[in-house]
What we know:
Elements: E1 7-12, H1 15-25, E2 30-33, E3 37-41, E4 46-51, H2 52-59, E5 71-75, H3 82-91, E6 95-101, E7 108-113, E8 119-124
Parallel strand pairs: 1-4, 5-8
Antiparallel strand pairs: 2-3, 3-4, 6-7, 7-8
Amino acid sequence: MQPQMSCIALGVAELARSRRFYGEGFGWKPVFENNEIIFYQLNGFVLGTWLTTALESDMQRPGLARPGAFALAHNVATRNDVQPVLDRLVLYGGRLLRNAAAPPHGGFRGYVADPDDHAWEIAWNPSWPISPEGHVTFGPP
């Protein structure tokens, strides 16, 4: 089976609030939206912000669509980009979870939660090059 991920769907309480964080905070442009979901085309996959009630109905799992013990990640080009991205996301509705700092395993990272408490790591890792298309590769090129 080809190793790939097509879509991540996040349950959200309010599309407008979520759109502010992802659209204005990250600067991502929706490629589709209706009254239940907004899709953003990212580098090789799609991120969907879906009203929680509609997502639960689609999965037939009422009450289970909530943030879990995971973090999504957005890598940046330089160490100096990490804290400004965190600050921008907070400005557009995020909640700072951890200021930028160097973890023991290397690089530089901080964490922010979106308005629905989905955690995002904003990271710079000198060993994870980013292609012009935004694709991250594990390890040196």
